[in-house]
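Listing S7. Sequence submitted for prediction.
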Amino acid sequence: MKVKTYFWTLIFAAFIGLGFSIPVNAQSLPAPWLLAPNFNPIVNTNPIDLTWELTLWNIAVPAGDTYHLQVSKSSTYASMVLDVSGLTTGNYSNFIASASTTYYWRVRLESATDSSSWSAGWFGTVAGLPTVTTYSITASTSSYGTISPSGTVSVISGDSQTFTFAPNAGAQFVSLMVDGVSVDSTSSYTFTNV
């Protein structure tokens, strides 16, 4: 079993008489800090950029670890609007929201053997929120490799989306199929002008 050592600073703050603390479990990964949007800012732009940091000083994700992001219209996260894992940066750009809706979102840090607690927040959208045309790209792989991001990814019309992939140890890359057609690439593929 590979052991990782993490160093972090415990932060305590008080805002207008409201105090909070961040619980720390020495056996788990540090939880990300949600930046924006968070705790009921009313959002009036679409798409929305969700941002977070590993700490307030934006320390890089430890090698091999990734973020897992979930967005739901339910505070219990009973069903997901967005569920993306394998993220290596502290943001998810271009989340497409619906007008007059409350969204609950959470992020956690994950390694191959552990995960942090979820950091959760929420935000609302205005009635006149602009609509955005999107397309879905579904990325999947066999059990012999990884692809990032994985699952169904929404892409705004005219934007690009890059996927990176790698074989697991002891496996080798055979082929990449895009819309049923073999593509000559062994580590990444970018859909352009979707």
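Caption to Listing S7: primary sequence and predicted structure tokens for the chain studied. Residues 11 and 22 are 7 Å apart (CA to CA). The two ends are 42 Å apart (CA to CA).
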